[in-house]
Specification:
13 helices, Dehydroquinate synthase-like, alpha domain, about 400 residues, two-stranded antiparallel sheet, alpha/beta, 2 domains, binds nicotinamide-adenine-dinucleotide, about 45% helix
Length: about 400
């Protein structure tokens, strides 16, 4: 509408007022969050996709110190060369930074002018960066758009996808979090070139997990190609990242807000998270903790007669062949079994007395049990490789 004084945007409504009734009034909000995951093979292709997604917005690019020095400073420069306004900040690398303290510092930085509501936050790094920055993006101004640019294999195939964002609390991992989907994910497998072997193996643990719970095809691909992946052959990496990304996206779509707490994706994570907590979030990498957790779950399943011994051997054998730890004794730090049990009991308390275990029963098949006893857990995490049957003996 235009009048003499200027233009107005007109809002006109005729909401009906119902009679007073016994039934509750209903209030609802429906949202649907679809986003593209671009899997690229080099930085110039990644830059194209990222610039397209950013459009004419300003960018607040957040990474950790290591990723900034290796890659993010270059990406920021390339975006600026394209006329995109970019501000950058970093925080120290490592799980200890996945904290409220880091989040508070990032929120201060955003509030100091780095981001307005229509701008976009870019989280560039491994799982620690995408989890922390995603959570910050979810709360800042009740949610600003963010794009993930993962730089570790673990973030490529897992953390950057699915919109589970969180920081850790000293009592439990990921205790302070949200579901907040990114606007897009731009993966560049070229970034894996600078990743060390231990981190690369840690990322493979999450691919193995997804193969076990839902895709024999992905499991077999990982069996066939892990040596080439560890040798960083681009085609093998691309194939695996593509396959594992696709499987993760399909799994998340089924229950994106985790209404069903019985979640196969948590295979290896009950023991894995407790292990990370008791070791102080750092010395044991996430994928390493998950690998030990998968072995504990598979062993428990085999001892209950749910998983045939050759199935156990195949699962544990792949983790071992990749070079992942398969028992507490192979971790880089000493972990007392009773400390681990204590951390699990703490998680049980937080979860209203129930500790859910995902137990694999075959490739592509799991059961969820909430009756795994402390003795069973103790036996599984105390097991040494020599106790496994067959080829693992
Ligand atoms: P990370 O982010 O700590 O990265 C590992 C190390 O590699 C860091 O020191 C980092 O600076 C460095 N790094 C990153 N990219 C690099 C590169 N290209 N070259 C060289 N160094 C590089 O750890 P991560 O293993 O990527 O992620 C673990 C975290 O992810 C955990 O906190 C875990 O809880 C979380 N996670 C989240 C989800 C989810 O769904 N949100 C899923 C799985 C894991």
């Amino acid at each position: 509408m235009v009048n003499g004084a200027g233009a107005y945007q007109v809002f006109s409504d005729r909401l009906a007022v119902p009679d007073v009734a016994e039934e509750p009034l209903l209030s609802g909000a429906v949202r649907s969050d679809w986003y593209p995951v671009h899997i690229t093979v080099d930085e110039s292709e990644a830059l194209e996709r990222l610039a397209d997604e950013v459009g004419d917005r300003r960018v607040a690019l957040i990474s950790d110190d290591t990723v900034h020095a290796l890659h993010a400073h270059r990406l920021a420069g390339a975006l600026a060369d394209r006329g995109i306004a970019v501000s950058t900040t970093t925080f120290p690398a490592g799980e200890a930074s996945k904290s409220m303290a880091t989040a508070a510092r990032l929120l201060d930085w955003l509030a100091s002018g780095a981001v307005r509501r229509r701008d976009v936050v870019v989280a560039m790094g491994g799982g620690v960066v995408v989890d922390t920055v995603g959570w910050v993006a979810s709360v800042y101004m009740r949610g600003v758009p963010y794009i993930n640019v993962p730089t570790t294999l673990l973030a490529d195939v897992d953390a950057a996808l699915g919109g589970k964002v969180a920081v850790d609390h000293h009592t439990a991992k990921n205790l302070i979090g949200a579901f907040y989907q990114p606007k897009a994910v731009v993966t560049n497998i070229g970034y894996i070139d600078t990743l060390d072997d231990r981190q690369l193996r840690s990322g493979l643990a999450e691919a193995v997990k997804k193969g076990i719970i839902s895709s024999p095809e992905l499991f077999e691909l990982t069996e066939r190609s892990h040596a080439r992946i560890l040798a960083r052959e681009p085609e093998a990496l691309r194939r695996l990242v593509h396959a594992a990304t696709s499987v993760k996206c399909r799994l998340v779509e089924r229950d994106p807000y985790e209404r069903d707490l019985a979640r196969p994706l948590n295979l290896g994570h009950t023991v894995g998270h407790a292990l990370e907590t008791v070791t102080g979030y750092g010395p044991v990498l996430h994928g390493e903790a998950v690998a030990v957790g998968i072995v504990a779950a598979a062993l428990t399943s085999e001892r209950r007669g749910l998983l045939p011994t050759d199935g156990l051997e195949r699962m544990v054998g792949l983790l071992r062949d990749i070079g992942l730890p398969i028992s507490l004794s192979q971790l880089p730090v000493d972990v007392a079994v009773e400390d681990l049990i204590g951390a699990l009991e703490q998680i049980r308390k937080i979860r209203d007395g129930s500790l859910r275990f995902v137990l694999p029963t075959a490739l592509g098949e799991v059961v969820i049990a909430d009756d795994v006893s402390t003795d069973e857990i103790r036996a599984a995490v105390s097991a040494r490789i020599g106790e496994f049957a067959g080829s693992l003996r």
